Every structure is written in C-alpha cells, then in structure tokens.
C-alpha cells in the first residue's frame, strides 16, 4: 500500500491519532496524535518512537515491530503505554498497517485511548482480589447454590477452591441435608432469590467425628443462584445445651422445693420417701402409696403430680370409701343429661376431669370388683362410656392410688382383681408411720405451730409435755399430731390416751419389774422393731435392711436367730 503526500488531507483529518513509523523513527504525526501526546509536532517527528513509550513496554513494542517488518505473525491490535510531555501515563490500543513512505517500508499506526477502560479493569481486578482475600480469610464454608439445589461452587474453611477435586461441587443439597431440613433449605433459597434478603436456617449434620451443627446464611447472587455461608455452631449449641440444662436443673430444684414444702421430714425413712417421689415424678407410670391412715398419702401424691410433666393438668383427689356403690360408675365416668332421674345436665366424671393430669384414688381397696374391671379397661386405653352416653371417651390420665390395706391380701381374699392391682401398682411408695420417725416430731410440731401463728412460742412447751409427745405411739400418725397440737394451743392442755407405749409422765405409775435379763429385753425389743419394719415395707427384706441401717446379711442372720421366716 502506498501512502504519499496526496493522502495527507485524509491523514490530517482522521478522528484517530495516527503516526507514521519507519525503522523505529516517527516520520509524521497528525494533529490528533499531537493532541493526545501533548507534544508539539516537531518534538515528535524524526524522534525515536521508543522515547515516548513507557519503559516497561519498550521491549514489547520493539519486538512486535521487528516481527512485523520480517513478516512474522504478530497481533495487529495490542495495548501499551505512552508517556505524555507532562509525564502522564496513558494506555493506548494500537492498530498498525504496512505502508510505503517515501519509497521505503513503514507502518501507519492508529492510537485508541483506552485509559479509562484499563482503569476500570484494574479496579475490577483489585476488587476481585480484595473479595477473594476476604472470602479466603473467612473461616466458614462458602458454597454457590443454584435454584435447583445443585452446588455450583465451594470454598472450604481453609480456602479450598471450587474445582473438580472438591467433593461438594456438582452435587445436590439433598445428599447432605435431612429430609425435613432439605425442604426448609429450598424454601430459604427461593425466599432469598425472590426478596433479595438474607435467609437464615440451621441444621444438624452427622459426620464421622460426631454430630455437627451448622448455621446457613443465604444471599441472592446474579441470576438464579445464591451464596451460602455455612458456619459451624456446634460449640455454641453445646453452650446453649449446657445453659438450658442448668436452667432446667434450677427450675427443677425450685419446683421440688415448692412441691415438697408441705412434707416435713429429716429422718432417713422420709429422705427415702423424697427420693422415691422424685423418681416417680420423672415417669408417667401409675403409682400406689402405702401407709397407715394419717401418714400424708395425699400430700405425697400431690407432690408427685406437681413435679411431673402433668403439673399443668388437674390433680383430682377422690376418697373411694366415701362414694356409695350405686354412684361409683356415674362419679368416675360422668353422665349425660336425661340418663336418669335428676340428670338435668351433662356432668363430667372424675376420669374426664383428670384428663391430662393425675387422678388420686384414696382408699383404693373400697372399689368393688365390677368397677375395677371398668376402670382397668379405661386406664389401659379402652376408654369408657359416660352413663347414658354413646361416644367413647379416651382419657389421658395418671393414677396415683393410696391404701392402708395390703392389696395382695385383698387379691388373695378375692376382693381385688389381680390384673387391676398389677396395673395400678407399678411404682410403690411406702410411708413410714410417725412412731418410726420420731426424730421428725420437733419439726412437725414447729410446722403446725407456725400454721397456727405460734411458731415464735415453740419454746414455751414444757419438757414434760415434750416427753409425753415423744413417748406416744401415734396410732393416728400426722393427722393425730396436728389435732393434738391444735388442742394444746387452743385449750392449753394435752389430751393423749394412756397406754403402755405412752405412759403419763406427769403421774408415773409403779410397775413390777419382771425378773428378765437385760439382754433378753433388748432382743425382744429388736425383734419387735424388725417385725414392724418388715410389715411397713410389705416384707421387702432389702428395703428393711436399708431402713434399719444394717447389711442384708446381718438382717438375714437376725431373722434366722429370731425364727422369723
């Protein structure tokens, strides 16, 4: 191609910056080139082209110029930097074509200022570098997830990139999440894409090293893709669990203190009772409380209810001995309006009132066999029909029964169904009579005096009165003691029946002393005490040994020596 003086008007009027290069020397420039480089024309023409190229780009430009002159393949368009007269560095993209200048080979070079584009690219690269540094510095797992649930990219907590060697990239979320959490995760992904807000959820992942908890934050990206940031929160969950357990323990202790505040007892037998109350409260199994009349069976039953998961339900007490036999069914099962004369409205029975709670059945042995069969069906899940009703009611109840009779004897006598007895008496608790826990007597007296507003005057009880209280056998147990204390406070006199076990210490009587050796008297007393304890525990020898504070082998040896089977 020729380029002579007749083409100068086109050369001068071009909107591009153009120079003519020949053997590395600038032979001509147009006005736009002068404007771009900010030199005068004479400062450019006949000067080496390399004088204006950025030092770092001179070798690149020279090498490509030589290759072009030798007709070797080189990119016809490439970027490089020029330095203006003011020292400013400007990025150009050049396009060169071969021409003939004054009969000699030369090149016509077009300059396109790309400084702004280069700056934008550099800013983007810097931004990407910063972002990449930030992402690699984050100690969390980061994944890119498509709307479909496929994982398109992954970075582990150590900065591992998303490539073919990473086991998560290219797989689906359903491979890692439990079914219920997978649905939640997909919903969160859709929510993030729709609202462009951060979505948060947690999930538990069973790994080789154990169960791990993760918190996931989902952030919408361009297109139908989200960025998921997975943070291991196992340590936090463990701390929360420990704190929750501590709070639960504190609540339990407060609850126990409140529930047992009305049960007074510091003796070893009563401490055993407290332990059994706590054990029974942790289950929903039926309980039977044994004890003589007045030992506090209802208080113990109420404490079991208050400490159990059924505490929010009703505690319904009933004295079975006080219900006439003909009314037993209507009292327990209720009735419908019009079921019989006088039934002018529906009435819920005791079982339905105790639904979700506890039914306390005192004097269990007074229920007849027919009613026992119906109750057995109801508590075993068969439900019951209210009198006059047509729809079966299925109550969710726990029964705590109480009796001062021996149910096993009642079963042998045919007065109690064997299946009914075994269904009710899953957890037995035996309350000791007051005569076997006399060390609790001062605390009980103080408790009753406080109830009567006399707690501060406990010291005024004379010693001879205290001695009589200690010597009494208390056949009526706690109830009798409460009445005696109340009478004493009200009437200022102590009314106790005279007996061999409780002599009147105010007027002692002379008695003939039998000619019996002391060791024999002690043996008889020990034998009697062992027999009373065996009866209280229903002949549970291991339990008897524990109450007596002796080893079982010692108890068996004593039983054999006293001829007790």
From TrEMBL:
It comes from the Bacteria. Residues 23-72 form the PAS domain. Residues 263-490 form the Sigma-54 factor interaction domain. Keywords: ATP-binding, DNA-binding, Nucleotide-binding, Transcription, Transcription regulation. Coiled coil: none annotated. PROSITE patterns: PAS, SIGMA54_INTERACT_1, SIGMA54_INTERACT_2, SIGMA54_INTERACT_3, SIGMA54_INTERACT_4. InterPro entries: AAA+_ATPase, AAA_lid_NorR, Homeodomain-like_sf, HTH_Fis, P-loop_NTPase, PAS, PAS-like_dom_sf, PAS_4. SMART domains: AAA, PAS. This is Uncharacterized protein. It comes from Desulfoluna limicola. The lineage of its organism: Bacteria, Pseudomonadati, Thermodesulfobacteriota, Desulfobacteria, Desulfobacterales.
């Amino acid at each position: 191609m020729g380029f002579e003086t007749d083409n100068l008007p086109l050369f001068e009027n071009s909107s591009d910056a153009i120079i003519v290069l020949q053997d590395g020397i600038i032979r001509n420039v147009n006005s736009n080139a002068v404007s771009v480089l900010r030199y005068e024309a004479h400062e450019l023409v006949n000067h080496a082209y390399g004088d204006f190229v950025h030092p770092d780009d001179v070798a690149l430009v020279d090498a490509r110029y030589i290759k072009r002159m030798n007709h070797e393949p080189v990119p016809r368009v490439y970027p490089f930097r020029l330095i203006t007269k003011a020292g400013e560095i400007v990025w150009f993209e050049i396009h060169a074509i071969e021409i003939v200048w004054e009969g000699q080979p030369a090149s016509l070079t077009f300059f396109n200022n790309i400084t702004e584009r280069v700056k934008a690219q550099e800013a983007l690269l810097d931004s990407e570098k910063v972002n990449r540094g930030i992402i690699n510095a984050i100690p969390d797992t980061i994944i890119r997830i498509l709307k479909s649930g496929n994982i398109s990219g992954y970075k582990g907590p150590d900065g591992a990139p998303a490539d073919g060697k990473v086991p998560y990239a290219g797989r689906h979320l359903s491979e890692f999440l439990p079914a219920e959490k997978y649905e939640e995760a997909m919903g969160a992904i859709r929510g993030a894409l729709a609202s462009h807000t951060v979505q948060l959820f947690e999930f538990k992942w069973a790994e080789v090293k154990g169960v791990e908890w993760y918190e996931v934050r989902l952030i919408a990206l361009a297109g139908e893709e989200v960025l998921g940031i997975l943070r291991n929160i196992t340590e936090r969950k463990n701390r929360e669990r420990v704190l929750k357990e501590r709070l639960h323990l504190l609540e339990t202790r407060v609850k126990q203190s409140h529930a047992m505040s009305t049960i007074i007892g510091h003796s070893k037998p009563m401490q055993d009772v407290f332990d059994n109350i706590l054990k029974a409260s942790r289950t929903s199994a039926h309980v039977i409380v044994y004890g003589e009349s007045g030992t506090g069976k209802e208080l113990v039953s109420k404490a079991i209810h208050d400490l159990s998961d059924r505490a929010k339900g009703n505690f319904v007490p009933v004295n079975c001995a006080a219900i006439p036999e003909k009314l037993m069914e209507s009292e327990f099962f209720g009735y419908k309006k019009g079921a019989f004369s006088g039934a002018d409205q529906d009435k819920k029975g005791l079982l339905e009132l105790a639904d979700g709670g506890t039914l306390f059945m005192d004097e269990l042995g007074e229920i007849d066999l027919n009613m026992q069969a119906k109750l057995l069906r109801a508590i075993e899940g068969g439900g019951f029909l209210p009198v006059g009703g047509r729809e079966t009611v299925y109550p969710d109840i726990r029964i705590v029964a109480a009796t001062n009779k021996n149910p096993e004897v009642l079963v042998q006598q045919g007065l109690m169904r064997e299946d009914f007895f075994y269904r009710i008496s899953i957890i037995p608790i035996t309350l000791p009579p007051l005569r076997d826990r006399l060390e609790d007597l001062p605390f009980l007296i103080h408790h009753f005096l406080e109830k009567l507003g006399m707690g501060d005057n406990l010291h005024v009880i004379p010693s001879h009165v205290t001695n009589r209280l200690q010597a009494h056998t208390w056949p009526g147990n706690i109830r009798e003691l409460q009445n005696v204390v109340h009478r004493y406070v009200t009437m200022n006199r102590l009314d106790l029946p005279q007996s061999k076990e409780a002599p009147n210490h105010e007027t002692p009587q002379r008695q003939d002393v039998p000619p019996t050796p002391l060791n024999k008297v002690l043996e008889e007393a020990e034998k009697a005490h062992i027999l009373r304890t065996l009866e209280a525990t229903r002949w549970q020898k291991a339990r008897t040994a524990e109450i007596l504070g002796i080893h079982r082998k010692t108890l068996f040896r004593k039983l054999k020596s006293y001829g007790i089977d």
